[in-house]
């Protein structure tokens, strides 16, 4: 069940307090905020507040950026369409329900899931309901669509696809998950022909988007150890898709490149991460579960640099903007690192309630949604 974000480090095995814990690690206190002399700053373009934000719950309420409009929802059910240039509200709707995941969408629909285990399809022009269907269990990952089907994955491992026009169920795939899991989930990636889903048993599956039949599976991590805690191998990050391949990470697993047609491994190396990797300047950047930021050479996979001063700070998925790598942390700081060597180039204390969902790039600007409900668009400004 959801819990207070301020208790993450001691909240038990379903909390993200487990990030950084491995079969050989013990829990550690987060390192203090690094002292940074900024050479680059985040200048606010606009700032709005979305309902009660995350309402002190551990939720993945990622906004949906759709060109001129940003769709964002709060835990208390405030769904808002925001003009991406001006930050003004285009429309608002009170869904009158608790919300557990971010907003999904396709050209004709928005999708949200409620705490009552319902999938709602809404009109993106007005927020009015189009259809709703019950789900067999709660969903904490964003539902995703290819325009023909919308796919939602429940906490007990069921993957369900519904017709986007009518809400009729097209297919269902039942995955196998262990008794003990982290309270985090990767959203399904739904392509025209293939849907990628990730499970808490360390597996990534490719399913046929039309029938739900499995095409292949890949093991990102194998459970090891005697206790359930030691055997956690959740895959909570979405694969990074490139031409014909996918880059995947897993908790107490590995960083691996796999062939999308067959699921065959091209290469892998040991890694433990709950966040999706990013690629820039020929390097792969990973926020490790223990808070360290690693840069790997994309060709040799050797470590180019490691930033260790964010240890145990529950860093967010990295974002690349210009020559900088941006990550947030559990105390709401945004850190700007050099892509070249990982040195700190800037820092901003953004949200006292913390940062959880990935920051998003909008052109050369940065969209940040803080746990308190602050939604802000920034641009980078050099201090030189």
TrEMBL record:
<dbReference type="InterPro" id="IPR011047">
    <property type="entry name" value="Quinoprotein_ADH-like_sf"/>
</dbReference>
<keyword id="KW-0732">Signal</keyword>
<comment type="function">
    <text>Part of the outer membrane protein assembly complex, which is involved in assembly and insertion of beta-barrel proteins into the outer membrane.</text>
</comment>
<comment type="similarity">
    <text>Belongs to the BamB family.</text>
</comment>
<dbReference type="Pfam" id="PF13360">
    <property type="entry name" value="PQQ_2"/>
</dbReference>
<keyword id="KW-0998">Cell outer membrane</keyword>
<dbReference type="InterPro" id="IPR002372">
    <property type="entry name" value="PQQ_rpt_dom"/>
</dbReference>
<keyword id="KW-0472">Membrane</keyword>
<comment type="subunit">
    <text>Part of the Bam complex.</text>
</comment>
<dbReference type="GO" id="GO:0043165">
    <property type="term" value="P:Gram-negative-bacterium-type cell outer membrane assembly"/>
</dbReference>
<dbReference type="InterPro" id="IPR015943">
    <property type="entry name" value="WD40/YVTN_repeat-like_dom_sf"/>
</dbReference>
<protein>
    <recommendedName>
        <fullName>Outer membrane protein assembly factor BamB</fullName>
    </recommendedName>
</protein>
<dbReference type="GO" id="GO:0009279">
    <property type="term" value="C:cell outer membrane"/>
</dbReference>
<dbReference type="InterPro" id="IPR017687">
    <property type="entry name" value="BamB"/>
</dbReference>
<feature type="domain" description="Pyrrolo-quinoline quinone repeat">
    <location>
        <begin position="81"/>
        <end position="307"/>
    </location>
</feature>
<keyword id="KW-0449">Lipoprotein</keyword>
<dbReference type="InterPro" id="IPR018391">
    <property type="entry name" value="PQQ_b-propeller_rpt"/>
</dbReference>
<keyword id="KW-0564">Palmitate</keyword>
<dbReference type="GO" id="GO:0051205">
    <property type="term" value="P:protein insertion into membrane"/>
</dbReference>
């Amino acid at each position: 069940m959801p819990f207070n974000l301020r208790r993450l480090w001691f909240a038990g095995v379903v909390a993200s307090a487990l990030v950084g814990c491995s079969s050989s690690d013990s829990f550690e206190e987060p390192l203090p905020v690094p002292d940074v002399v900024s050479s680059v700053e985040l200048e606010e373009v606009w700032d709005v507040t979305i309902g009660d934000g995350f309402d002190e719950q551990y939720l993945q309420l990622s906004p949906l950026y759709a060109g001129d409009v940003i769709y964002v929802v709060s835990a208390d059910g405030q769904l808002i369409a925001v003009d991406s240039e001006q930050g003004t509200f285009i429309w608002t709707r009170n869904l009158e329900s608790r919300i557990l995941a971010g907003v999904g969408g396709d050209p004709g629909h928005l999708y949200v899931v409620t705490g009552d285990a319902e999938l709602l399809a809404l009109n993106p022009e007005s927020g009015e309901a189009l259809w709703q269907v019950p789900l067999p269990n709660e969903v904490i990952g964003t539902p995703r669509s290819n325009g023909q089907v919308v796919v939602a994955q429940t906490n007990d491992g069921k993957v369900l696809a519904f017709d986007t026009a009518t809400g009729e169920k097209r297919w269902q795939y039942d995955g196998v998950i262990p008794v003990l899991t982290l309270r985090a989930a990767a959203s399904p990636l739904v392509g025209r022909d293939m849907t990628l889903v990730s499970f808490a048993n360390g597996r990534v599956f490719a399913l046929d988007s039309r029938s739900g039949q499995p095409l292949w599976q890949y093991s990102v991590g194998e459970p090891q150890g005697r206790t359930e805690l030691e055997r956690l191998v959740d895959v909570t990050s979405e694969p990074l898709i490139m031409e014909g391949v996918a880059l995947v990470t897993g908790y107490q697993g590995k960083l691996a490149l796999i062939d999308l047609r067959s699921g065959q491994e091209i290469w892998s190396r040991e890694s433990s991460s709950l966040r999706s990797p990013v690629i820039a300047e020929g390097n792969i950047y990973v926020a490790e579960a223990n808070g360290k930021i690693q840069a790997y050479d994309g060709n040799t996979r050797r470590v180019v640099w490691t930033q260790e001063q964010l240890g145990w700070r529950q860093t967010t998925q990295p974002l690349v903007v210009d020559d900088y790598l941006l990550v947030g942390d559990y105390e709401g700081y945004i850190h700007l690192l050099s892509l070249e060597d990982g040195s700190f180039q800037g820092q901003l204390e953004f949200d006292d309630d913390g940062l959880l969902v990935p920051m998003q790039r909008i052109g050369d600007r940065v969209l940040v949604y803080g746990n308190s409900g602050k939604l802000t668009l920034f641009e980078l400004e050099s201090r030189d």
